[in-house]
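Hey, resending since the last one bounced:
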Amino acid sequence: MFLVCGEALWDLFAVEGEGLSFDARVGGSPLNVAVGLARLEQRAGLFTGLSTDRLGERLLGALTAEGVATEFLVRTQRLSTLSLVDVGADGSPRYAFYGEGAADRSITAADLPSLGAEVWGLHAGSYSLAVEPVGAALLAFFGREKGRRLLTLDPNVRLSIQPDVDLWRERIGRFLPCTDVVKVSDEDLGMLHPGRRPDEVAQEWLAAGPALVVVTRGAQGAVAWGAAGRVEIPGRPVQVVDTVGAGDTFQAALIAGLAERGAATREAVEALDATQVSGLLDFAVQAAAITCGRRGSDLPRRAELPAPAPSEDR
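The structure tokens again:
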């Protein structure tokens, strides 16, 4: 099982018409990654605070229906987070979050679970990294599990929740020494390190700890740095409906692709050659393109993607 850590919430999409109404979809970057893994036929669980309110119960039902393990959820009477989503003409989303003191931000170090051998990796990302007390708790979790399991990170910077870029840089800097694989969008890199080249930042991050650094570039594809050197692949053409959940899809497919290639440890990730890394990136790009062709975070299932090529099997 891969255990995903972080927020779970409702995305509210405004619906045009008389008055104001919303189309509500389950969301939150970590929740999306957990669902994405389950749809890609990987065992996945979610570790987050989940409200006992009606919205929290509906989130629980959605996770259960998707096959995401729920035994790591911490139930609380705190309210569920809401996110208002405004989709621009190019399909890119803007978010306004309503969740101060909500369930998914309330995790503390005392809530950290004991893990059995069935959990082979942890993932963390998004605003849960940068708000308290959950941010400090997840950092402690990564520190505790470093060297025991494969640890992946997606900063997924949300300045609308935590506008202090220096805090984001500091927190990411503390996660990097514990992280084996980090994925970040070029947009996030631009916010974190304006004016700097992605390859320069990626090399610094590699030196700080990760075995593989992946930068996604939207329609332009993705590029990775690691033991196999620099590997770049182009994007896939798609009629974009919106890009909500595209980064989470890429992250889920990246983890699933590693599992399918037998790269479930840091040592195995370091052993991937350039051809295998290229196949891994292409798999994740194809998955993200499918999500971009749908409304909201409607992540693909394994049958919608090609099976690994025989030469990529490990």
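Residues 26 and 62 are 8 Å apart (CA to CA).

Sorry for the duplicate.
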